[in-house]
């Protein structure tokens, strides 16, 4: 039997499409404030917005008649006919927001038009008009939302913890503020100031407030035109990168959106500039003629449809590439493959005939008994840096296979010569040079130390699974500035950081203090960078996946290890070499790069043409 739904039920269903959580409410209300011409917008929340949301602005306000009518479904001042959708300049337009919010919450609206002596109040609860009357109030509009989903328990139970919901709101305000640097946004939670932008129409100022000094100083300008698309904004150079895309803000005509095409163009443009798994922070705006983009394809208006995806792709791709090229001061070069062919990484000897791992680049599988298996495994497991020579990738994979099968005693015997080698010293403050009989050995100090720390942490983790890693107290506490969203995530996961050896305290609104790090037996090289990477892991969810614990330990080991250009004493070099010989896998770092390279005397003589 078909029947017409009553207004309350229809509004409740619409709320399910538009209002998912407190952040959805904030989005709809702030977009209304922007459409009202507000230059100052304040958002105050309690319990992550679940208990209370208060949005106030200095916009144009509403008449008493419009204030009541605004709570009706599809009541809008933004368009009159279907063709108006092709020329929309407003953030909202469907007219379902207030009706949907009022259907699942208790709403109190105060509004007063500029120049009017009196304001007007409207109270709606669960979709029913409770009261409307003339009142005194400031110019602009103030709307209070209380007890979200109080009458829809099935939706209420899907809400997250207060801190998580607060984080979603903070992330939303960040995106809105970056889209409208001419508007001052303020976010407060339980009387604590979380976010406040200047509203001075300077995008870099807004980026500085939201993302911090380091990110802002690494920004280069994006300014590109590919008819009819104009691309503008900022992107960080490869010197400052992140482990995920959480700080990539894409705007279309000033509206924050998600687009598969734009994301693909950014990824392609950044290839060869950023290491695999590293991404730039960016804020870019695509200005496109209104009739060439459709924003009416998603209830929450977070997705768009372009008239020509290829043109949009090209505009973004070339705009990003041009910005990176103009902002780069480093000349990149490559080592010829002929030199690689004369180098043999250290490998384990077998009783049986060893595998042939020669690698012909023109015919990748011609001489390789593992054929396609090597290629796939190399791409998946060892291509952490796409600049690694293909031959080295294949060799690293096979050495991994060999190490898994090798007899531990044979391994110790094979590497024992390192302890007896003559330590020549350090070159470029990055590589250790050793000589033993007719061998010339080069060790990457960072890769070697990274492997040592990783195996140490891995042993601790496996022996004390789900228990705390051993800690060492920092001689001087480190501080780290975060975005409001990141701060909320850290607060929610303090116990997980503690399990990995990082004791973290809260130090001001958007700053944390790092007191301890995992015990690696010596000074931890970069605690701040390690915590940044772990926060990135939270953002992409890998932090919580049990099968990803190795990647977290890789991250910690990488940040703890000595770096290239660190000057090591003679005793420190000898200790590193000694520790290396005790490892389960001393042949390559956790990311698959070889850490020991060996040249025979004959190899050097060939290079100098002493022999041919």
Which descriptors apply to this entry?
612 residues, 8-stranded mixed sheet, Heat Shock Protein 90, Ribosomal Protein S5, domain 2, 5-stranded mixed sheet, 22 helices, 4 domains, alpha+beta, 23 strands, elongated
Quick summary of this structure?
This protein has 612 residues and is an alpha+beta fold.
Regions with little confidence, pLDDT below 50 for 5+ residues: 329-340, 347-408
* CATH C-level name of the largest domain: Alpha Beta
Number of separate helices: 22
* CATH homologous superfamily grouping of the largest domain: Histidine kinase-like ATPase, C-terminal domain
Alpha-carbon Rg, integer = 30 Å
- Strand residues, percent: 15-25%
Characterize the biggest β-sheet.
8 strands, mixed
Strand sequence of the main sheet, in spatial order?
A: 5-4-3-6-2-1-7-8
What is the number of independent domains?
4
| Overall pLDDT score | 80
Helix content range of the residues, please?
25-40%
The secondary-structure class comes to alpha+beta
Which architecture of the largest domain does the CATH hierarchy give at level 2?
2-Layer Sandwich
CATH overall fold name of the largest domain: Heat Shock Protein 90
Distance between the termini: 92 Å
Please count the beta strands (DSSP E, at least 2 residues each): 23
What is the overall shape? elongated
């Amino acid at each position: 039997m078909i029947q017409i739904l009553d207004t309350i039920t229809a509004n409740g269903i619409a709320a399910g499409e538009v209002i998912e959580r407190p952040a959805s409410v904030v989005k709809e209300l702030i977009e209304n404030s922007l459409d009202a011409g507000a230059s100052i917008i304040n958002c105050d929340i309690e319990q992550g917005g679940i208990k209370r949301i208060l949005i106030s602005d200095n916009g144009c306000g509403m008449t008493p008649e419009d204030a009541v009518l605004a709570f009706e479904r599809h009541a809008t001042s933004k368009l009159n006919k279907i063709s108006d959708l092709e020329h929309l300049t407003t953030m909202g337009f469907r007219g379902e927001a207030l009706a949907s919010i009022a259907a699942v919450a208790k709403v109190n609206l105060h509004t007063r038009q500029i120049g009017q002596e009196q304001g007007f109040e409207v109270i709606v609860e669960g979709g029913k008009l409770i009261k409307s009357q003339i009142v005194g109030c400031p110019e602009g509009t103030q709307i209070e939302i209380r007890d979200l989903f109080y009458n829809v328990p099935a939706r209420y139970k899907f809400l997250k913890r207060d801190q998580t919901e607060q984080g979603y709101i903070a992330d939303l305000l960040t995106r809105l503020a970056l889209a409208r640097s001419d508007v001052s946004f303020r976010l407060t939670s339980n009387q604590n100031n979380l976010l406040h932008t200047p509203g001075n129409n300077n995008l870099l100022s807004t980026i500085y407030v939201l993302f911090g000094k380091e990110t802002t100083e690494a920004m280069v300008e994006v300014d590109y035109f590919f008819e009819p698309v104009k691309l503008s904004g900022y992107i960080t150079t490869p010197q400052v990168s992140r482990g995920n895309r959480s700080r990539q803000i894409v705007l279309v005509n000033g509206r924050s959106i998600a687009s598969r095409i734009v994301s693909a163009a950014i990824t392609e443009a950044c290839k060869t500039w950023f290491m695999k798994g590293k991404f730039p922070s960016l804020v870019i705006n695509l200005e496109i003629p209104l009739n060439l983009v459709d924003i009416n394809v998603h209830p929450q208006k977070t997705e768009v449809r372009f008239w020509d995806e290829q043109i949009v792709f090209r505009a973004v791709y070339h705009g990003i590439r041009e910005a990176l090229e103009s902002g780069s001061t480093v000349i990149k070069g490559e080592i010829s493959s002929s030199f690689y062919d004369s180098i043999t990484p250290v490998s384990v000897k077998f009783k049986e005939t060893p595998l042939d791992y020669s690698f012909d680049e023109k015919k990748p599988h011609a001489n390789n008994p593992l054929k396609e298996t090597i290629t796939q495994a190399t791409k998946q497991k060892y291509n952490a840096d796409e600049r690694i020579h293909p031959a080295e990738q294949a060799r690293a994979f096979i050495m991994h296979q060999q190490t898994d099968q090798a007899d531990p005693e044979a391994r110790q015997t094979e590497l024992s010569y390192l302890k007896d080698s003559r330590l020549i010293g350090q070159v470029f403050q990055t590589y250790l040079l050793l000589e033993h009989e007719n061998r010339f050995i080069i060790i990457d100090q960072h890769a070697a130390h990274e492997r040592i720390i990783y195996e140490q942490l891995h042993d601790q983790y496996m022996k004390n699974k789900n228990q705390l890693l051993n800690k060492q107290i920092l001689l001087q506490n480190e501080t780290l500035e975060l975005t409001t969203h990141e701060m909320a995530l850290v607060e929610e996961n303090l116990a997980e950081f503690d399990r990995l050896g990082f004791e973290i305290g809260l130090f001001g609104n958007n700053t944390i203090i790092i007191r301890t790090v995992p015990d690696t037996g010596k000074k931890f090289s970069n605690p701040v960078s390690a915590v940044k990477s772990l926060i990135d892991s939270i953002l992409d969810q890998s932090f919580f996946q049990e099968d990803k614990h190795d990647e977290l330990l890789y991250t910690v080991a990488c940040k703890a290890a000595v770096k290239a250009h660190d000057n090591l004493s003679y005793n420190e070099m000898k200790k590193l070499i000694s520790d290396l010989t005790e490892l389960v896998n001393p042949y390559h770092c956790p990311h698959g790069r070889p850490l020991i390279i060996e040249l025979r005397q004959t190899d050097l003589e060939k290079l100098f043409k002493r022999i041919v």
